[in-house]
């Protein structure tokens, strides 16, 4: 398994020194941060953190690359270390330098896109390493990353939390869950580990499986390139660009998690000449479901009314001569209707119309006595205007006291005339019959208005209104 590396030491596959789950002292991070702030210690800075960052980026991206970046893990490590030199002042706690570098490397890998499949099966494996390959294929990517940080690189859950933007308690629980799931995956591939006296898989077995699988290490040329670029003036702009790619940062100086994947480039023909878009048509939807997104908007703007030029005011618009006809006709019709009603009312209340009931006194007392059901007053009004015929004077007519008045009332009822006795006392002549009550001539029947009166005037008014409407 082990072979000479291009770094000059006895190391594992790809030249990377074998690393275990031992913890990294926090005070070393503060010392490296202090040296970088003073402008020296770049060689020691790379030797301490560079190989581990390369293994981590390789586990996230896989081997190889493309024409611009033939070594994608190496390009991600270089970007992370260049950005660290520029952003070191943004890290409040210098003891977190190592997890901070892992967070920068993860952001650089995220911009390049994580590998869809675990890259462990892409390299040749020894028999003792096949258990790890079978295990990682059964784990989700998040658990594989947790095992790399927790077991291979020795980060504590409290240090993993800011790298993955998690709470401390959440990171610790996820690390335990990843180990338990790894144990279950190992049990599916083998009933028990090869460790002497072990009856079942345990945490120590998972750590042994992870660390025995040595990942490829960085090439020697990458060290020379990164150490030179950390201080060269010609790469100052590139360092600033790498730092800007890590933004935004949180209050603790760690990159905030967001979508850092580059947007897909448009096709060449679409970039050269964008195709003409067909006009959008509104869809048929219920009015109560319509929203602004369902109705296409006008891209050329709504038409805006403009003031007409001064000389255009003299020219009436087409059809403008009859725009006033509708409201004028309505007003004239209202006036005409009012006049018609006024004329009809005047004709109905003219002098020739009978509006009273029986003439006064016509429902007088009957000859034979009794009362009538008429509501006319009992006493006749005094005669006005015309003289009524009177009875001729009688020479031997009895006095008013002897002959009772036939219309005289006593109390509430009229006193009826009494028949004269057959033989008047004293042997005098018999009195004559009392005169009949005066009669009122009947009223003449109503006649139509004479021609040329109010009706002819109303007709002429209506004719004039009709002529006005026709002429308009």
Low-confidence stretches: 1-20, 269-306, 316-321, 353-417, 423-428
Number of helices: 14
The fraction of residues in strands falls at under 5%
Tell me the number of strands: 4
Structural class, by secondary structure, is mainly alpha
Q: For the terminal residues, how far apart are their CA atoms?
A: 110 Å
The radius of gyration is 61 Å
- Overall form: elongated
| Mean pLDDT score | 71
What fraction, in percent, of the residue positions are helical? 40-55%
> The biggest beta sheet, please?
2 strands, antiparallel
Sheet with most strands: strand arrangement: 1-2
Order of helices and strands: EEHHHHHHHHHHHHHEEH
Keywords: DNA-directed RNA polymerase, Transcription
Biased composition (Low complexity): 268-277, 286-295, 304-318, 385-405
InterPro entries: RNA_pol_sigma_r3/r4-like (IPR013324), WH-like_DNA-bd_sf (IPR036388)
Protein name: DNA-directed RNA polymerase specialized sigma24 family protein
């Amino acid at each position: 398994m082990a072979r000479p590396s291009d770094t000059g030491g006895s190391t594992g596959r790809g030249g990377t020194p074998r690393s275990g789950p031992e913890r990294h002292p926090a005070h070393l991070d503060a010392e490296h941060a202090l040296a970088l702030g003073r402008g020296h210690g770049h060689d020691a800075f790379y030797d301490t953190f560079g190989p581990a960052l390369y293994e981590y980026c390789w586990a996230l991206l896989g081997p190889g690359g493309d024409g611009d970046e033939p070594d994608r893990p190496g390009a991600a490590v270089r970007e992370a270390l260049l950005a660290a030199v520029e952003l070191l002042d943004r890290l409040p706690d210098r003891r977190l330098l190592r997890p901070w570098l892992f967070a920068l490397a993860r952001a650089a890998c995220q911009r390049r896109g994580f590998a869809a499949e675990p890259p462990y099966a892409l390299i040749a494996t020894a028999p003792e390493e096949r258990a790890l390959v079978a295990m990682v294929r059964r784990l989700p990517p998040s658990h594989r990353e947790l095992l790399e940080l927790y077991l291979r690189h020795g980060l504590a859950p409290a240090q993993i939390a800011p790298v993955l933007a998690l709470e401390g308690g959440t990171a610790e629980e996820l690390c335990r869950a990843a180990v338990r799931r790894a144990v279950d995956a190992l049990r599916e591939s083998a009933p028990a580990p090869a460790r002497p006296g072990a009856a079942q898989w345990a945490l120590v077995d998972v750590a042994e499986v992870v660390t025995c699988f040595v990942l490829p290490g960085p090439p020697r040329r990458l060290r020379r390139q990164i150490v030179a670029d950390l201080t060269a003036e010609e790469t100052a702009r590139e360092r600033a660009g790498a730092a800007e790619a890590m933004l935004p940062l949180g209050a603790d100086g760690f990159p905030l998690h967001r979508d850092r994947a580059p947007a897909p480039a448009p096709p060449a023909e679409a970039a050269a000449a964008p195709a003409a878009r067909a006009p959008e048509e509104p869809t048929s939807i219920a009015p109560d479901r319509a929203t602004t997104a369902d109705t296409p908007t006008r891209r050329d703007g709504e038409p805006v009314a403009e003031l007409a030029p001064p000389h255009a005011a003299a020219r009436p618009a087409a059809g403008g001569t009859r725009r006033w006809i509708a409201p004028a006709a309505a007003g004239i019709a209202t006036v005409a209707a009012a006049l018609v009603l006024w004329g009809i009312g005047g004709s109905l209340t003219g002098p020739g119309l009978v509006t009273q009931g029986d003439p006064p006194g016509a429902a007088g007392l009957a000859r034979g006595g009794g009362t009538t059901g008429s509501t006319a007053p009992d006493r006749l009004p005094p005669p006005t205007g015309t003289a009524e015929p009177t009875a001729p004077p009688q020479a031997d007519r009895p006095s008013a006291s002897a002959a009772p008045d036939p219309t005289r009332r006593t109390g509430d009822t009229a006193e009826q005339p009494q028949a004269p006795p057959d033989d008047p006392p004293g042997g005098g002549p018999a009195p004559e019959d009392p005169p009949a009550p005066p009669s009122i001539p009947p009223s003449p029947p109503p006649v139509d208005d004479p021609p040329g009166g109010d009706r002819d005037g109303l007709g002429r008014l209506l004719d004039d209104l009709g002529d006005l409407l026709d002429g308009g």
